[in-house]
Amino acid sequence: MVAVGGGGRRRRAWRWAMRAAASAVLWTAVVQLASIAGLFRPRVLADCGGGGGAGGGVGGVAGLAALAGEDTGAARLSPPALVPKRIYKSNGYLRVTCNGGLNQMRAGICDMVTIARHLNLTLVVPELDKRSFWADPSDFGDIFDVDHFINSLRDELMIVKELPLKLQLRTKKRLYSMPPVSWSNETYYLKRILPLAKKHKVIHFEKSDARLANNGLPIQLQTLRCRVNFQALRFTPQIEALGRKLISTLQRSGQFVVLHLRYEMDMLSFSGCTHGCSSKETEELTRMRYAYPWWKEKEIDSVVKRLQGLCPLTPEEITLVLKALGFTKDTLIYIASGEIYGGERRLAALRAAYPKIVKKEKILSPDELRPFQNHSTQMAALDYMVSLASDIFIPSYDGNMARVVEGHRRYMGFRKTIILDRKKLVELLDLFQGGALAWDEFSDAVKEAHKSRMGQPTERRIIPGQPKEEDYFYANPQECLGSNGGLRDIS
């Protein structure tokens, strides 16, 4: 009886195990079929919020709500189905080492995707600059959502996280590296770069900044640059979550202005702009410039450069400009920047005029910011998100962040961005401070100079043969913008 009872239990256990295995197989099949079916759904890039979004992967009104952490209907939808893969014969692999800060690298990545697509190359996820002034050890995946980057562009090109093992071993011994010629058009890449890629199988671009022309490119290349910038380059969930908290906190206080105050040590040193600095500070900034052999311009006349409008405004100058533009004392101002050169001493005049000045370090706790400390690009990503969501964005210098944010805000519906005419402002500031202009005259002149510099629709300036002097594509990607704040379909 005991033996028979034991056999019955074993048979029941065996039947139970078989049923469990069958159920597992059935559910696996259901999941696989659902995934396959998803590939053939209509192509929807739901994360773009009606046409735009990166940084936070959002754009337009719905995008701003998502940035602020509001519960929208779009946010509750299931993730969009993967777009179908583009099938093509790859002509080789493109490896890229980006150079510069976050936004210089961001624009470079957009260019590199566009070039790889144009040449039918397989792109390896870009490597980020770790040797610049900031010495940030962050990798691409520490800043951007790698899987989203790869999957959202799979109908355009293949992107891989690393080279196949065979090519990894080969490139350790020999890798063809070069910096492409700056401001080049699509013909240069087809005639000069494509044959090299086919010959060497792997080609390495050791610089990514300004490698594509601003103008004269086919519309499909220009709109792809926009698609990468506004849809594919989404920050990591950790950065997005903290950025949304910053934005939500600021918006609870009402409208707010973001002042991108580019008065930082590296900017002043490499530009040679020392207006308002002591002789000791001027010597320190000069020593730093000479300490970096890759910075070619060593002897710089600060006075001449300032009069040409090529220096960032000082905190004292920006205080007078904000007053002249009509910003009142109760304006909430978020300072987007790294450490201000001279610290609180240089911010004294600005803080006296505008007591409601805040930075991310004042809004977030040390514990919240600790994972981002010593990672300047990740900290800049937080400022980028806040800059996109602000009611008004004002950069004190037209560096990479200022220009890329300006273009992104145009894409989000021509949100107000005050692009300061520094050459005119320096002239007016010197006249006012020298007593040649009364305050009302100074204020009226400042307002008049900026009536058409508020981020409204405008044509990108083209100067044949002088690409550096043209308006930058990423500051005004007009091929991707509607004339009245609407967004063109770039998918």
TrEMBL record:
For this protein, the record's Pfam families field holds: O-FucT (PF10250)
**According to the lineage, what is the superkingdom?**
Eukaryota
User: What biological-process GO terms show up in the record?
Assistant: fucose metabolic process
Question: What GO MF annotations does this protein's record show?
Answer: glycosyltransferase activity
Recorded hits in InterPro entries, A to Z, give:
FucosylTrfase_pln, GDP-Fuc_O-FucTrfase
Q: Does the keyword Transmembrane helix apply?
A: yes
- Give the pathway annotation: Glycan metabolism
Entry keywords, A to Z: Carbohydrate metabolism, Fucose metabolism, Glycoprotein, Glycosyltransferase, Membrane, Signal-anchor, Transferase, Transmembrane, Transmembrane helix
Similarity field: Belongs to the glycosyltransferase GT106 family.
Q: What is this protein called?
A: O-fucosyltransferase family protein
The species this protein was found in:
Urochloa decumbens
